[in-house]
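job 3f2a | input accepted
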Amino acid sequence: MTTSIFRRTLTTAAATGGAAALMLAAAGGAAAHVGVTPDKTDANSYALLTFGIPHGCDESGTTKVAITLPAELNDAQPTVNPNWTVEKVTETLPEPKKLADGSSITKRTSRIVYTAKEPLPHDLRDALVLSVKLPDAAGSTLHFPTLQTCETGQTDWSQIAKDGEDPHSLEAPAPSITVTAAEGGGHGTEVAAHSTQEGAGETEQAAAVTDSGAEARSWAGLAAGVGGLVLGGAALLRSGARRKATDGAASR
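job 3f2a | predicted structure (252 res):
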C-alpha cells in the first residue's frame, strides 16, 4: 500500500517538475528579448515606454540601441539616462502629413539612438524610456524595431508576426504595444502631457522594474505550487502509513 502511494507521488512530482521546467524555460526565453513596457496604452494619450535591455549579443556588451518609431508616431521625447548619450534622427516625409489640429508636418522623428558611454556588460540590464503621444487608433498594434549593437555582433529585434503566426515563436521579435480605448472616451491634453512629464522620474522607475517584478511573482507562484505538491505528497504518505498501522493493529 505504502509503496504504491509512494510510486504515485513520485510520478506526479516528476510530471509537475517537468511542467515547471518548461514554464521556467519559457519565462527565461521571454525575459531574454528586448521588450517594451508602457505605463498606459489609452488611445490619444501621452505614455512612457520603457525598453528593457536584458543582455548583450551572446556574451558581448551592448554599445548602441537604435529604436525605430512606427509610422503612426511623429515624435518621441527620450529620457536622459546617465549611462548613455542620445540623439533623435529625423526623416523628410514623401508628402506633407496633416495633423488632427489642421496643421501639417513635412518631417518626423524616425529613430531614437542611445549610445552607451561604456559598453553595458552582458550580465547586466538597463532601461531606456521614451515619452510619446499614442495615436487615436484603439486596437492597433505599434511595433518598434530595435537594433542592438554590441562590441562584437548585433541583434536586430525587428521580426513581426504574420497573420495567424504566434509572435512567441519568433527568434527576434520587435518590441510592440497595443493601443486600447481611452478611458471614459476622453482624449489626452497638453496639460496631461505636462503633468506626465513632471512625474516622469517616479513613473520611469516603476516602469523599469515592471518586468523584473512580474518575473519575481511568476517564480514565487511556481515555487509555491511545487512546494504545495511536495507537502501534499508527504501528507499522502503519512496517511497511508497510519492506515497500514491501524489495519495491522486491528488484525492482531
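job 3f2a | The chain is about 35% helix and 30% strand.
job 3f2a | closed
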